[in-house]
Amino acid sequence: MLDQAGYKSENNNAFLNLQFLAGARTEVFATTMYNSGNATIRDFVYDSSNIIPGTALPAGALDFPLMSSSFAGFSDLDYRTIIQTIGANFRATNNVLINTSLSFGDLNDVKPFLYDTTGSRVGFYAGLSWVF
Amino acid sequence: MSMRLVLKVTLGLVLVAALSGSVLAQAPQSKTEGIVTAGALAGSNDGSQNRLNEYEVAKDGTLPQFGAQVWGNNGTFTFDLLASHGGDNRDQKYGAFLSGGGGRFKASVTFDRFLHRLDHDPLDYMEAGIGNFVVRATDHDPGSDYSRAVGMLNTNVSVAATKNVEFFVSHKMTLRDGVHQGLTMSHCSNCHVESFARQMDETTNTLAAGARVNAGRFTMDYTFENRTLDEHGPTPTNTYDNAVHPVSLLDIFLNRVQYDDANGALPFDLVPKQTKVTNTVRAAYALPGDGAISGNFTHSSSNNDYADVGSTFTGGHARVTIPLGKRAYLKGLFRKYEIETESVFVDVVEQTTPAGPGAGLTYAQMYPAMLPLDYYTESTASRSPTEMALEFAFRPGKRSSINLGYEYEEITRESFHVEKSTTNTIKASAYWRPDKTVSLRARYEQAMTSDPYANINAAKPAALQLVPTPGGMPFGPLSLQYFEMYDSRMANLSSIPTDTVFVEGTAAWSPSQTFTVSGHYRYRDQKNDELNYSTWGHDLHMPGVEVYVAPTPRFTMAAGWGYQKDTLDTVFSTLNFGG
Lengths: 132, 579
What we know:
The complex is a heterodimer of chains A (132) and B (579). Chain A has one domain. Chain A is built from one helix and five strands.
C-alpha cells in the first residue's frame, strides 16, 4: 500500500525589547519573546479502499488497522510559548549596582504527543554587583 | 534574569578581551578590573519543564547565585578570569585566559557544566491490535524524569617559538552523565516494547597538537588530532519474550527470530568505544597583488573498537583567487574526498523450531527461496565526491557589487544502485545601496541534479495474494511469506532533489541613527520528479522583519518577527499483511 502524503510545519517567532533610563542611576528593561510552532502529517488518506479494490481484508489482519490508526496522528504538534522578563538595574554608588528581574515563562502543549509538556515558571532574581 | 544569561554576555566580553590579549599585553601599566555579583534566584514551577527549560536547572525554590570576572595585566601578562555558580552543580562555568610575551604565549582553560532534560516516552499509546495480535509495552521505570549533565573542559596553549614558528596544543573533554530512556523490543508472539532507565557516563577526549610556519608570503600548518569516546555506564540487558505463533500462541515460531527467552539476558543500547585519528596539512601563498592560493589535505580514520569496524576520510581542496583589476576578481575551487567504510558480514543466527509443521527446521530450510540469509552490510556514507566551483565578483560602483558563480559536484558510489550523481549549480547575488539610507541584497541559486541518490525498489510490493491463506496458518505452499513481499517491491524512494531553486531578498532602511527597519524573505523549492511511483518535494518560506526605534536618548525599542513554513511532499508505504 502506497499513498502520496506530506508533512507541514509552521513556526512563528516574535520579540519586543524595551529599555528606559528612568533617571541618572536607574535603568528599566522589559523583554518579551513569543513562539508558536505546529506540525502535522497532511493529506493522509490511508483508507482500506485503496489497498486492493474489491477485496475484503482478512478477519485477522493486523497491519492495516495498526498503521492507519497510528500514522494519521503521528507527530501532530502544536506548541505556544511566551517568556516575559521585566527588571531594573540601580546604581547605588559608582561601584555598587543592584540588579532585579522578574520573569515568567509559559509553554502550552496544545496537542500533547507522547506526553504533555505544558508547563510554566515564575522566577525572581535579586543581586548585588561590585565593580572595581 | 538567570545567571547563565548574565554569563553569556560576560563570556562574550572575556573572549573579546582574550582575542585582544596581544594588544593589551603591550600596555605597560599594570591594572586590574572586574565585577563580582552575588544574589538569589527564587522560582516556582508548574507542570513540565522539559521544553520550557530544557537546558536550565530552573529549580522549584530558591538558589544562591554567584559570579565574578576579573581582567587586567601585571605588565607582563594579561589575564581574564571568570567564575559563576548557579547554586546547583549542573549550572557552573569557569574560565581563565592568559597572554604574555607580547602575545607570543597564549593559554586558556574553560569549564562549563549544564543540565539537559530528556524525554521519557510513557509508551501508553500502544496496546493496539486484533485478537491475539497485540502491540504492547512495559515501562519498567514509569513516571521518572530523565536528564543528563553535560560538562565541557577546554584547554588551549600556543607558543611562538620564533618569529616564524608557532606550536599549539589543545585538549577538549566532554562529559555526559545521567539517565536516559533505553528501549528494546521482542518480536513474536507480539511486538513487546520494553523501556528501562539507562545509566550513561560518557567521556569524549580530543587531544590536538600541531605547528604553524609563517615565512613571508607562505604559511603552512600541520595538526594531529586524536579523539576517543568511552561509555563507562553498564550496558543494560533484557531477556526477550518466548517466540510463539501470534494467534495460536504455540511454540512453533522460533525459527523466525534470532533469539528469544532461551538465550537469557542479552545486551541492548550498547555504546561502543570509538576512536578517531585525524591528520591535517594546510598551506597558503599570497600572490603579488591581492591574489592568493591555498589548499589542504586531510586524512582521518574512525573505528568502532567494540565491533572492530572503521571508516576513513581522505581528501583535500585547492583554492585560488585572481584579481582582475581593482574592481573584480575570480575565485576557483577544486575539492575531492573519499569516504570508505568497512563492510560488515552479518552471520544470521538460524534457530530451529521445536514443534509444529517446521519442527527441527530452520526458516531457510522451510523456505529455501529466501537464501542466502547471511550478507554484507555497506554504508551509504561510502562515497567519492568531486567538487569544482568558479566565482566572479565585480564592483560596478562604490555602493554595489555583483557575484556570479557556477558549481559542479559529482558523487560516485560503488556499493549501491545509484553509482553516480551529478549536480550543476548556478549562483548570482547582488548588493546595492542607492543612497546612504537604503541597502538592498538579492541572491538566487538553482541546482539541477541528475540521478540523485535513491533507494531502489524500496516500497510498493506487488499484490501477490488477494485471499486469506486457508486456515489462516502461515505454513504450506499457499502461505505468502514476508520475504516474498519484500522481494517484489517496485517503487524507488529518495529525499534528494533533482531541482532546487533558492531566492533571498533583504532590504534595510535607516533614515537616522534612531530608526532602522529591515526585512527579508527566503524561499526554497526542491523537488524530485524522477521517481517511478511518487513525487518528492520540499518547500520553505521564511519572511521576517525587524524594527529599531530610539525616540529619545533615554528610551529604545527593538522588535522583530520571523516566520518559517516547511512543506514536505512524500510517500507513505506499508505492507498490508493479514498476519
